[in-house]
């Protein structure tokens, strides 16, 4: 691990460090066959293995993971198990199922939050889960206008909170109001993904770690140490998809970064409130997301440097000084009491952004190649639903899930460089400029954000 700005960075994530980095399992020893080959040992791959092995315990299922389970976003995220729709309703509604298929997708995501909690309880996966809801706080007039315009939260069950009600929950500086969605739980991400892997292994699913897939073809996944031949090969690589041969422009790997404080004293918690453990975010264009951890820290994340040229990804979560400074400023703006508080760890990871900013779950019955992802930062819950959708597609059963708005939808590819780099970094420069104007006192959402949205096709 490195130290930047006095903060440790790398080591994949605080969550993995806290759980203790795992002893990494053996790689694929040579060629073999399987009924289903899953590429990627994150939540998408593992939920798919979980539901397939449940539906048909006789299936021979193999998971190929380049590093170790949970190495990617699944072991690095903010731990918001939220019902948020990954993408825009309007875009999904352009598909053949129209708005009805989007409404069903939204409803399924709501139920999925409880489903994940149930799985944790059933299998004794101790991942610090608490269903505490998510609170989005408005800290400027423009953010309040955004909140009141009715598009802040993911679903219809959210409640608007007055300033007093918001502060009674969490004393965020400059609070002007908030919205609370009760359908969200806090989790410790590494514990969740590693616990799920144990369950899947106990059902006989073979997980090969240190096994990087070089290419996927109809009927096989090819690795350095061997080839797995299988009628179904499922790509579950999210932000790493672009490194797989032939996928350079499929999805864009977007960066997200986090910092975590040392455990805070009881006196500090008494000042901050936050006794309900709600997940916390704001309504800025370049928003932050935070959690009160089970061991009394604040973990807070935001975009950081949004995108690396040529779809490059980080090494073991190492992030930059600029990102650490910017997240520290965000933390201290929200909670001035924390000015100068030691940050214990900083890390980053990648999530996948499709060209139309909406997720997909697909299987081509002619080739047997399937994939799921493109969750644009809202994948913790969505991976479970995607796993169940892939299960139904593989088993060839027509269910409510196989006609959801995200199933088998075509998405065009990203532009070649330097257009990708210019587009995404330009978009975030505009978001940050819009946020500066809003914080400076603009009484309505800045138009720059709308320009940014149209620039990026969001
Ligand atoms: C910092 C951060 C914060 C986030 N916060 C939240 C949040 O609070 N709530 C939320 O809903 N979502 C959040 N997300 C998004 C969420 O974490 C992801 O959507 C979700 O974890 C995606 O899971 P996945 O299994 O599809 O991908 P990943 O977890 O990225 O898994 C992909 C796996 O594939 C492996 N791999 C890569 N290349 C190869 C290869 N060639 N061969 C074999 N294996 C390979 C990787 O090592 C990795 O383990 C966040 C993401 C990040 C990065």
What does this structure look like?
With 458 residues, this protein is an alpha/beta fold. 32% of the residues lie in helices and 22% in strands. The protein has helices at residues 14-19, 43-55, 89-93, 98-123, 141-148, 163-169, 189-202, 266-272, 321-334, 382-395, 419-439, 447-456; strands at 2-4, 7-9, 32-33, 36-39, 61-64, 80-82, 134-138, 159-161, 177-181, 184-186, 206-208, 213-217, 220-223, 226-229, 232-235, 252-261, 279-282, 289-292, 298-302, 343-353, 360-364, 369-373. The strands form 4 sheets. The chain has a 10-stranded mixed sheet. Strands 11-5-4-15-22-21 form a 6-stranded mixed sheet, with helices on one face. Strands 3-14-13-12 form a 4-stranded mixed sheet, with no helix packed on it. A hairpin with a 6-residue loop joins strand 17 (279-282) and strand 18 (289-292). The longest helix is centred in the first third of the chain and has 26 residues, at 98-123. Flavin-adenine dinucleotide (FAD) is lined by residues 39-45, 64-67, 71-74, 76-80, 82, 212-213, 236-240, 243-244, 256, 258, 289, 301, 349-351, 373, 375, 377-381, 383.
